[in-house]
């Protein structure tokens, strides 16, 4: 079991990776990546049970599916720092001949990735399929998925939500990153989502609220609680409130940094706020 | 050369149902999904024998494609079932990202393809699906010609590793290929040898091509008939071998001429062996309500249309 201070050190380092990666290619999505850093660090280093080696089928271990694929920088950093692939490969992000495509893909064989994502709204269906496969295989491990809140505007999400409850897929924990922002502005302006918790409950899910989605301890407690709610006939949703751009002051509380890279000066300010703890790539 | 005879009319979708039921008994990794069209897809036998390996997803095709992709993670071989229209155009992006680009071992099984769906009309008669699916990198596209071949194709795609689009139809049509003929993906079948023209046909048009060839023989025209059940990968060697002999080709398919088998054949010929070609296909149009026979007649997709196309293409031979 990881110590909290170790996870905190990892969070700081992953934030550095994120801003350095997007700065290096002057493209990518830092805002949502920074907002989900604590969650993915906790998931991959404490919450999930994983085997030492990666294979596509993932039998005998927990699985994770990233549905909002544009937050690939945080995903890649967390995977690399967990040992899925060499750390220096983060240098290749979004460059030609790289396994680290702009959005996650299986095509180049990057360990840790089991499905391509980027076109939104598809990840919950895929996670459901993987969860059904676990049941068929008699594998008691869980399937986790992460979704953006803007992504809930896609109809396929609600097809999946209906199926999950209707077919009692109770080995799935789907987390919604409720940062309230999307490319064109606040979600409640672009297309109001209303009460996300009530919507999932109305579809028949067991829903947990995570108000402090950028607090490691709160994440760990909620995800432990979520695990205990699995296996009871209902899919489990975690509505996780985060701040887009968390940890870099000028990127916080705005959609402006959804898909924009910092310039040289902005990078230095971001790095100054997130000390190097485990060595830069 | 063996002459083919109609062993009795059967629908190709029932060939799929029979193949799927057989897979249910022989391959424990095969699972099936359906979007509220179990009866139309003839999946009942598989479902009654393997209730735990069937997933009814309701009228939610996008979700079905995603779930199918996920089921491969864990080692399963999902067969999705719905009409061709809802198996392709409706869910193109789901297939593109979660199945084709992600290289998932999903078998997209599509019934009621083409205009012979009949009375339901153009909303349900897709004539663009071969084009849509063949454009996806890595996607295998198969359009078998009768009951026996559809059953055999269903068994064969379970063994193939990778995404497959299997296209079949609604009406009862002649069943004429041998019952236990092995199905080799990507391998064309030479049904009848000839020397004046090559007729390359797929799906329901293969029987029509054989009838046309017989009628042409009476007029002194020797037609070679090739059954292209796999549109992608296309058996280029078989095609080139035949056209090198006959010098011209007619392609026949129940599909728009934009994006269909005919264009695939034209690409091969223009690259390696330019030759006159005629297209028996729909011509940039939607379908309409009617009986299958009426529609095939009106849209120029029967043996008479093939015969005329043969006479046209032979005039173009120098």
List the helices and strands and how they pair.
The complex is a heterodimer of chains A (281) and B (318).
Chain A: H1 4-25, H2 30-35, H3 37-47, E1 63-66, H4 72-81, H5 123-136, E2 143-148, H6 155-166, E3 172-178, E4 181-182, E5 185-186, H7 187-190, H8 196-202, E6 206-210, H9 216-229, E7 236-241, H10 264-272
Parallel strand pairs in A: 1-2, 2-3, 3-7, 6-7
Antiparallel strand pairs in A: 4-5
Chain B: E1 9-11, H1 12-26, E2 30-34, H2 38-41, H3 44-49, E3 54-56, H4 61-72, E4 77-83, H5 84-87, H6 92-101, E5 107-111, H7 129-134, E6 140-142, H8 147-159, E7 164-167, E8 172-174, E9 189-192, E10 197-201, H9 205-218, E11 223-227, E12 230-232, H10 236-246, E13 249-256, H11 261-272, E14 277-282, H12 292-298, H13 303-316
From the structure above, extract its key features:
heterodimer; A: 281 residues; alpha/beta; Rossmann fold; 5-stranded parallel β-sheet; two-stranded antiparallel ribbon; 10 helices; B: 318 residues; 5-stranded mixed β-sheet; 13 helices
Structure description:
Chain A: Keywords: Thiamine pyrophosphate. Chain A: InterPro entries: THDP-binding, Transketolase_N. Chain A: Belongs to the transketolase family. Chain A: This is Transketolase. Chain A: Residues 10-268 form the Transketolase N-terminal domain. The complex is a heterodimer of chains A (281) and B (318). By secondary structure, chain A is of the alpha/beta class. Chain A has one domain: Rossmann fold (3-Layer(aba) Sandwich), CATH 3.40.50. Chain A is 39% helix and 11% strand. Chain A is built from 10 helices and 7 strands. In chain A, the strands form 2 sheets. Chain A has a 5-stranded parallel beta sheet with strand order 1-2-3-7-6, sandwiched between helices. A two-stranded antiparallel ribbon of chain A has the order 4-5. In chain A, strand 4 and strand 5 (185-186) form a beta hairpin. In chain A, helix 1 packs across helix 4 (72-81) and helix 3 (37-47) runs parallel beside helix 4 (72-81). Chain B is of the alpha/beta class and 318 residues long. Chain B has 2 domains: 9-174, 3-Layer(aba) Sandwich (Rossmann fold); 189-312, Rossmann fold (3-Layer(aba) Sandwich). In chain B, 40% of the residues lie in helices and 20% in strands. Chain B has 13 helices and 14 strands. Chain B has helices at residues 12-26, 38-41, 44-49, 61-72, 84-87, 92-101, 129-134, 147-159, 205-218, 236-246, 261-272, 292-298, 303-316; strands at 9-11, 30-34, 54-56, 77-83, 107-111, 140-142, 164-167, 172-174, 189-192, 197-201, 223-227, 230-232, 249-256, 277-282. A 7-stranded mixed beta sheet of chain B has the order 3-2-4-5-7-6-12, sandwiched between helices. In chain B, strand 10, helix 9 and strand 11 form a beta-alpha-beta unit. In chain B, helix 1 (12-26) runs parallel beside helix 8, helix 4 packs parallel to helix 6 (92-101) and helix 9 crosses helix 13. At the A-B interface, helix 5 and helix 6 of A face helix 4 and helix 6 of B.
């Amino acid at each position: 079991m990881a110590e909290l201070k170790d996870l905190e050190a990892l969070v700081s380092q992953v934030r550095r990776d994120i801003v350095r990666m997007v700065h290096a290619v002057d493209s990518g999505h830092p805002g949502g990546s920074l907002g989900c850093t604590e969650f993915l660090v906790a998931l991959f280093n404490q919450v999930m049970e994983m085997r030492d080696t990666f294979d596509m089928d993932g039998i005998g271990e927990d699985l994770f599916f990233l549905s909002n694929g544009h937050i690939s920088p945080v995903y890649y950093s967390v995977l690399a720092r967990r040992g899925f692939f060499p750390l220096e490969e983060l240098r290749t992000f979004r460059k030609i001949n790289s396994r680290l495509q702009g959005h996650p893909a299986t095509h180049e064989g990057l360990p840790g990735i089991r499905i391509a994502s980027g076109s939104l709204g598809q990840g919950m269906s895929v996670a459901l399929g993987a969860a059904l496969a676990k049941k068929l295989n008699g594998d008691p491990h869980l399937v986790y998925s992460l979704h953006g809140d803007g992504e809930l505007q896609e109809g396929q999400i609600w097809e999946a939500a209906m199926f999950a409850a209707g077919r009692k897929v109770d080995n799935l924990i789907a987390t919604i990153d409720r940062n309230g922002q999307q490319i064109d502005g606040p979600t409640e302006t672009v297309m109001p989502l209303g009460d996300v918790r009530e919507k999932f409950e109305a579809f028949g899910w067991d829903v947990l609220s995570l108000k402090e989605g950028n607090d490691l301890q709160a994440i760990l407690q909620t995800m432990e609680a979520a695990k205990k709610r699995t296996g009871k006939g209902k899919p489990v949703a975690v509505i996780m409130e985060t701040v887009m751009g968390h940890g870099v002051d000028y990127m916080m509380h705005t959609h402006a940094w959804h898909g924009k890279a910092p310039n040289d000066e902005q990078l230095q300010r971001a790095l100054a706020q997130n000390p190097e703890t485990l060595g830069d790539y | 050369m063996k002459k083919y005879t109609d062993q009795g009319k059967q629908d190709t979708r029932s060939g799929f149902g029979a193949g799927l039921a057989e897979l249910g008994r022989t391959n424990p990794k095969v699972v099936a999904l359906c979007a509220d069209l179990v009866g139309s897809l003839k999946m009942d036998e598989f479902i009654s024998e393997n209730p735990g390996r069937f997933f009814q997803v309701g009228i939610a095709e996008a979700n079905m494609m995603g779930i199918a992709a996920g089921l491969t993670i864990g080692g399963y071989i999902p067969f999705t079932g719905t009409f061709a229209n809802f198996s392709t155009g409706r869910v193109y992006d789901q297939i593109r990202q979660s199945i084709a680009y992600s290289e998932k071992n999903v078998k997209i099984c599509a019934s009621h393809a083409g205009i012979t769906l009949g009375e339901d009309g153009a909303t349900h008669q897709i004539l663009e699906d071969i084009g849509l699916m063949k454009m996806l990198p890595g996607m295998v596209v198969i359009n078998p010609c009768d009951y026996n071949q559809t059953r055999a194709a269903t068994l064969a795609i379970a063994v193939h590793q990778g995404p497959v689009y299997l296209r079949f139809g609604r009406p009862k049509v002649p069943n004429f290929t041998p019952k236990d003929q092995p199905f080799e993906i990507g391998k064309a079948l030479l049904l009848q040898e000839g020397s004046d023209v090559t007729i390359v046909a797929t799906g329901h048009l293969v029987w029509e091509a054989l009838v046309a060839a017989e009628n042409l023989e009476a007029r002194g025209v020797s037609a070679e008939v090739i059954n292209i059940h796999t549109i992608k990968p296309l058996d280029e060697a078989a095609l080139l071998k035949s056209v090198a002999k006959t010098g011209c080709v007619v392609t026949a398919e129940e599909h728009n001429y934009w994006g269909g088998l005919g264009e695939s054949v034209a690409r091969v010929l223009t690259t390696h062996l330019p030759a006159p070609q005629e297209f028996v296909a729909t011509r940039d149009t939607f379908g309409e309500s009617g009986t299958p026979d009426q529609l095939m007649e009106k849209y120029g997709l029967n043996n008479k249309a093939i015969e005329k196309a043969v006479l046209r293409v032979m005039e173009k031979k120098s």
